[in-house]
Write a structure and sequence with these properties.
Layout lengths: L4 H4 L16 H8 L4 E3 L5 E6 L6 E8 L5 E4 L6 H14 L6 E5 L5 H4 L2 H8 L3 E3 L1 H11 L5 H11 L4 H4 L2 H6 L11 E3 L5 E4 L2 E7 L8 E5 L4 E5 L22 H13 L5 E4 L8 H24 L5 H9 L7 H20 L3 E4 L7 E4 L1
Parallel strand pairs: 4-5, 5-6, 6-7, 11-12
Antiparallel strand pairs: 1-2, 2-3, 3-4, 8-9, 9-10, 10-11, 13-14
């Protein structure tokens, strides 16, 4: 997320399913005559599913198929508000659950993945996501997950104070109900093609923001289904997380992905958040430039002397995030991703004993 620290870290999950008056967002919208579904030029529908945090909504897409079924992309976070809106909108559009032939997930973050299992139970349809994204989802929310403890230890070694570390476990645990029930997955293979909406779509590996994430591109209509990889006006969170199977340089992978996407000719980009826009290449290059500025700024902070990642995070994003563990988690992980990129370039180095604490310095 570009701009303010809040924008850079708004990929998190929220705190409440209902507004202060007790009515759901769906009920309030219905009373105002609003609709969450917008018909696109190609006959698809964009359905804006509300999120209880600063991004406000996630874009889900309904794609009509020749056999009368529908493909659903990224159904949203599993909350009472989301379910209410889907029930209302499907009824308004005359789409029955059994008409949904499959669900395609661009990545495994809860605001995209969370309702997939609920829809699968209602519709009995397959859910397509990459094997790598499935592995990561199981690591976070599978039975016996120890990710919260691993992340707590990781952040401790990077300088986060104990009064903040104790909040991480409950914070991460609160997401589980928003992805349950979890779906049975059918593998989606990067590099393959998928017939959808009367077009053949290239499945493009899109790492950096989410391990195993993909974009989908149609040469025929020059349309890119971008997930969170290329967003208008904001940039997705890029997180370095602990684990031998995880990407040691997610920002480098993300920048490489943006360079690949910048070579696509697009007339329409359908993002996971905010409004559709025409030019993926231009926006990809803008995001690359944004991260290069961030890297230069971080180098300037390192030039002032060695520091922990947590200290650098607060100098980059502000101390006010101590009051929002959700945004702080993403700011910390993104700071670490930028430090890893600088280390890969030979411009920064980390030091300290194996068990921490660790500090970074200019190389």
């Amino acid at each position: 997320m570009s701009g303010t620290a809040k924008e850079r870290t708004d990929e998190g999950r929220g705190i409440s399913d209902r507004e202060d008056g007790g009515e759901t967002a769906a009920e309030n919208a219905a009373q105002r005559g609003d609709t969450a579904a917008e018909r696109l030029e190609n006959g698809w529908f964009r359905v804006k599913i509300p999120l209880p945090y600063s991004l406000r909504y996630v874009n889900s897409y309904l794609i009509p198929e020749a056999d009368g079924s529908w493909t659903l992309i990224d159904p949203g976070l599993n909350t009472a508000e989301s379910r209410d809106i889907w029930l209302r909108e499907l009824n308004r559009l005359g789409i029955r659950f059994r008409d949904i032939g499959r669900i395609v997930l661009t990545h495994q973050h809860p605001d995209h993945y969370g309702l997939a299992g609920w829809f699968q139970l209602q519709a009995g349809c397959p859910v397509l996501m990459t094997a790598e994204a499935g592995r990561y989802a199981r690591r976070l929310w599978g039975s016996g997950s120890v990710f919260a403890a691993e992340l707590t230890g990781w952040f401790r070694n990077h300088g986060m104070p104990e009064e903040l570390l104790v909040q991480l476990g409950p914070h991460l645990a609160s997401f589980r109900e928003r992805v349950e029930p979890q779906p049975r997955l059918t593998d989606l293979e990067p590099g393959s093609r998928l017939d959808m909406g009367g077009e053949s779509w290239q499945i493009i590996d899109a790492p950096g923001h989410a391990g195993g994430g993909v974009c989908l591109y149609s040469d025929a209509s020059m349309t890119l289904i971008a997930g969170d990889q290329v967003l208008p006006r904001i940039t997705p969170n890029i997180s370095l997380i602990p684990g031998m199977q995880e990407d040691p340089d997610p920002l480098g992978s993300y920048l490489d992905s943006l360079r690949e996407l910048s070579g696509l000719e697009t007339r329409q980009v359908l993002p996971g958040h905010r409004d559709p826009f025409p030019d993926a290449g231009r926006r990809a290059m803008e995001i690359i430039a944004h991260h290069e500025r961030r890297l230069e700024h971080l180098l300037g902070l390192l030039a002032e002397g060695p520091a922990s990642a947590f200290d650098l995070c607060e100098r980059e994003f502000g101390t006010h995030l101590r009051h929002n563990i959700h945004n702080l988690r993403f700011a910390m992980s993104e700071t670490l991703a930028h430090l890893a990129r600088l280390a890969k370039r030979g411009k920064a180095a980390v030091s300290g004993p194996a068990g921490g604490p660790w500090t970074y310095a200019s190389a």
